[in-house]
Amino acid sequence: MDHLQYLLLLAACLLVTLPLELTGSRVYRRPARLAKAILPAAVVFLAWDVLAIAGGVWNYNPRYLVGVTLPFGVPLEEALFFVVVPLCGLLTFETVERMLPKAKR
């Protein structure tokens, strides 16, 4: 079960923030805008990971990974992290932005 921990944590982040879409944040309903928000940073941090792995600066404990490795040695979970965490943050931000004006009335 340890090998699923990273993926389960990412899934939990998505599950906890998924209901925020129902508040009208419309993050999932605008995929082009979502990609513009997430992909640039994801590419930069993936490149950073590739360089750090290649340079021996850090590595990942295989005990907590499913074993799928993307090109250049980046674990699947790490690549997903750079999409899931910003997505959850964006959902939270958009929801707060929508709710604050209502709370001030």
TrEMBL record:
InterPro entries: Lycopene_cyclase_dom
Recorded GO MF terms: intramolecular lyase activity; lycopene beta cyclase activity
Biochemical pathway: Carotenoid biosynthesis
Keywords: Carotenoid biosynthesis, Isomerase, Membrane, Transmembrane, Transmembrane helix
Listed GO CC annotations: membrane
Spans through the membrane: 6-25, 37-59, 79-96
Pfam families documented for this protein: Lycopene_cyc
Organism field: Amycolatopsis acidiphila
Protein name: Lycopene cyclase domain-containing protein
Principal location class: membrane
Any one GO BP annotation for this protein: carotenoid biosynthetic process
Coiled coil: none
Membrane topology of the entry: Multi-pass membrane protein
